[in-house]
Amino acid sequence: MRGVGLCDRMISSYQMSSQTRKWTVCTMLHFVDLSVTNSWIQYCADSHANGRARKETIQYLDFKLLLAEEMITQAQSGESHQIDEVMSSDDEEIYSSK
């Protein structure tokens, strides 16, 4: 199974839930689920392309937990990754000339 079917199946397996009926919160949680699932699918594809054995690839739930732990750690440490920190001098020249 590939593409949309795989994504829907993975989202339904470990779906984020909330105790709210507000459509805005439900929609945001769905988009978070969607982005995490798509990231995991891309990770699996990249792992396979790099020759990593299937047993060495992180499972979906473990991937989701690692991502959550990393986000909590960054939020607690107060780290912020701004675009200016990431951009190289070449990128700055391109954007300043526009």
Shape category: globular
Order of helices and strands: HHHHH
What's the average pLDDT? 78
The radius of gyration is 18 Å
Give the end-to-end Cα distance, rounded to a whole number of Å.
Answer: 44 Å
Count of alpha and pi helical runs: 5
Count the E strands: 0
Residue share in helix: 55-70%
What's the domain count?
A: 1
Q: From the helix content, strand content and strand pairing, which structural class follows? A: mainly alpha
Q: Main sheet, how many strands, which sense, barrel?
A: none
Poorly predicted spans: none
Q: DSSP strand (E) fraction?
A: under 5%
Region (Disordered): 77-98
Protein name: PiggyBac transposable element-derived protein domain-containing protein
Biased composition (Acidic residues): 87-98
Briefly characterize the structure.
With about 100 residues, this protein is an all-alpha fold.
Q: How would you sum up this structure, described in words?
A:
The protein has 98 residues and is an all-alpha fold. It has one domain (4-97). It has 5 helices and no strands. Helix 1 (4-13) crosses helix 2.
What are the defining features of this structure?
single chain; 98 residues; mainly alpha; 0% strand; PiggyBac transposable element-derived protein domain-containing protein
How are the elements arranged and paired?
Layout: H1 4-13, H2 23-49, H3 60-77, H4 83-86, H5 89-97
Helix pairs in contact: 1-2
Biased composition (Acidic residues): 87-98
Protein name: PiggyBac transposable element-derived protein domain-containing protein
Region (Disordered): 77-98
